[in-house]
Amino acid sequence: MYTISPVHACFVLRDIRQRGLPEAPLFVGTALNSAQLESGSDINVDDFLQLLENARTYTGDETLGLMIGRHANVAAFGPVGGAAATAPTLREGLQVLENFSRLHATNARISLSSQLACLSIRIRYLVPLGEVGRFHAETATLFIQHYVEMLTGQPLNDALYCLPFDNPGYDEAYARCMHSPVSFGHEATRVDLPHHWLDLQSPYFNAEMWNQAQFYLAQRMKEMSTDTENTYTQHIRAQLRSFEPPLPDLDTIVGKMHLSSRTLNRRLQQEGSSFRDIRADVLQRWARQYLAETEHTVEAIAALLGYQDTANFRRAFRQREGCSPSQFRQSTAAGKV
């Protein structure tokens, strides 16, 4: 059974009350009531989806997702949000959200993927959301916007918001809420965030609170590893994919996780992987991207990836791709013709 924090449902309940409407129709077909929502305990995702549908039909408000999104902030994510709020940089806060967002909603996953021009923040859901899926996408997008603007103190007007549905027709409402361009009809909800935002120092950084939060989340990671396959492998891959080259080394990663390198290596080995192999996979992804999407020389790409010797880069690339970097570039260019 998938569960979710009741925070967003409480926003809907508050909206119903502010409209002066009776509450009972909001809970039809669910096992919920106002007291249960206000207790702060997680609720069943199916009940939450029905509550959203009830609110939509009850109020006739098709901009419900924007209403929820206007109020969405890190406080809604509990301990994970607390860690994100006190992170040293936006990048590290987003990494926390990626790795632990399931503690807020077991049916949702946030993934980060660094590209040449931006960091792509992708939100996907493990259960069908039906007609109210649009509300989830709008809320998630506005949450990312609020979080970036909170940490940086600047309007986020140069990102791209990609939404997985056709334009619903309320452009003025989008213009009031969304500070960056919006694009419709995508496969999944995604925010493309330019790199220049990621490593700005946050004024909310508090070393003591950040360290306490990291310790707590590390403990939760340990708990999650008992019932989630390849937890540490997924965590390390996610961490590395959120960086641009040169990628951080093992000591940097274990410092963030409050583990020793020996402990992490042992846990990765138990999952059938290793830090070296995971890092090599992520570097190979960057190598393919540089070769396919830039005009950098092979020597320049090798240097960007952290190779001291171009010959070592050529050798590693051939072992993984079965061809040289130059041959890969030629074949990619031919495929674009």
In round numbers, the mean pLDDT is 92
Mind telling me the C-alpha Rg?
Answer: 22 Å
What does the overall shape look like?
A: globular
Give the count of structural domains.
3
**Proportion of residues in helical segments:** 40-55%
**H and E order:** EHHEHHHHEEHEHEEHHHHHHHH
Binned strand content: 5-15%
Main sheet attributes: strand count, strand direction, barrel closure? 5 strands, mixed
- Counted beta strands: 7
Strand order of the largest sheet: 3-4-7-5-6
Low-confidence stretches: none
Distance between the first and last residues' Cα: 48 Å
What count of helical segments does DSSP give? 16
Description:
- With 337 residues, the protein is α+β, with helices and mostly antiparallel strands.
- It folds into three domains: 59 residues, no CATH class; 124 residues, no CATH class; 107 residues, Orthogonal Bundle (Arc Repressor Mutant, subunit A).
- Helix content is 54%, strand content 9%.
- The strands form two sheets. Strands 3-4-7-5-6 form a five-stranded mixed sheet.
Q: Topology of this protein?
A:
Blueprint: E1 3-4, H1 7-18, H2 34-38, E2 43-44, H3 45-59, H4 64-71, H5 78-85, H6 90-100, E3 108-114, E4 118-125, H7 133-152, E5 160-163, H8 171-177, E6 182-184, E7 189-194, H9 207-224, H10 231-241, H11 250-257, H12 261-270, H13 275-293, H14 298-304, H15 310-321, H16 325-336
Parallel strand pairs: 5-6
Antiparallel strand pairs: 1-2, 3-4, 4-7, 5-7
Please provide a brief summary of the model:
With 337 residues, this protein is of the alpha+beta class. The protein contains 16 helices and 7 strands.
